[in-house]
Amino acid sequence: MSSIAFQGQFGAYSDLICRLSYPEMTTLPCETFEAAIEAVHEGRAELAMLPPENSLAGRVADMHALLPESGLSIIGEKFLRIEHCLLAPPGASIASIKRIHSHPVALGQVRRLIRELGATPVVEYDTAGAAEIVAAKNSMEDAAIASSLAGELHGLQILRRNVEDESHNTTRFYVMAKEPVVFAPDTPNLMTTFVFNVRNVPAALFKALGGFATNGVNMTKLESYMVNGTFTATQFLAEVEGHPAQEKLRLAFEELTFFSTEIKILGTYPADAFRLAQRAGG
User: Fold this and answer.
1) Would you give per-residue pLDDT tens digits along the chain (282 residues)?
2) Strand bridging mode 230-241 / 190-198
3) Which of 280, 279, 275 lies closest to 80, judged by CA?
4) Residue 153: left (phi > 0), alpha (psi -120 to 50), or beta?
5) pTM of the predicted structure, to 2 decimals
6) How many Cβ atoms sit within 10 Å of the Cβ of residue 42?
7) Which part of the chain is the Prephenate dehydratase domain (predicted)?
8) I want to staple 271 with a disulfide (CB 3.0 to 4.6 A). Which of 74, 158, 189, 250 is the partner?
9) Domains of the chain as residue ranges with CATH
10) What is the spatial distance between Cα 130 and Cα 137, in angstroms, rounded to a whole number?
11) 171 included as an active-site residue
């Protein structure tokens, strides 16, 4: 049975999206994003599931810097609605909880619950790890914020579901592999992710992006970040709708080359059903 690598431990949200998206594969927990990437290169995993962003927390640290040098291709995207659960050992109750353990980002997403219970937030290294710690403590006063999967794996009961402050809390994931998946240029609903640098001239970014506008290419994402710790070398990560071989996108990339020092396509892949539903709704 083939494996899919993710960062974190069993029960993490990354583990959950792997199981939901690829139930026929075994999940391979890795300590870091780099380790998940390396697992694919070494053949211990066929795929890696890596999160670039969350609708509340924003960009996932380090991912944008890792992607261009990963040596992997993006072959798909997945979206997971983050449903935080309040987990506690059997016998505990809402009234008995005095401390809530979780990753700091998750704790920041359940402030209303913490205030309601008058509980003390306790920072742990990740959500699934918090569930493991609470299970080991077996205290009626300690609870964890984590996925239902983490509760199931560690024998915890769910005191309350969907305790997050915002209902739109969603994490996006890239599915990455050693080799790209080849799609025909006329395949509908494709996305292309790429990175580029611009020349150090006035209005370079404006000119670089002009070809996408004039050719009617919809750009859904554009983010900048520093390269090699310098304030003068900026790299951009962008996402557009379409296939690079389609006429309008091909022309846009041709124009981009005049103002960019480097362009690297990270992957062309089908848009997830979540994206298509949002597009249809507005």
Assistant:
1) 699 999 999 999 999 999 999 999 999 999 999 999 999 999 999 999 999 998 887 888 778 788 889 999 999 999 999 999 999 999 999 999 999 999 998 999 999 999 999 999 999 999 999 999 999 999 999 999 999 999 999 999 999 999 999 888 899 999 999 999 999 999 999 999 999 988 777 888 888 899 999 999 999 999 888 776 666 667 899 999 999 999 999 999 999 998 888 899 999 999 999 999 988 876
2) antiparallel
3) 275
4) alpha
5) 0.90
6) 9
7) 3-178
8) 189
9) 3-82+169-177 (3.40.190.10), 85-160 (3.40.190.10), 190-281 (3.30.70.260)
10) 11
11) yes
Amino acid at 138: N
User: Tokens 């053949």 appear where?
Assistant: 43
Catalytic residue among 10, 173, 194, 259: 173
**Structure tokens given for 270:** 């089908």
Q: Find the helix or strand (DSSP H, E) in which 111 lies.
A: helix 111-117
Structure tokens at 273: 């059903």
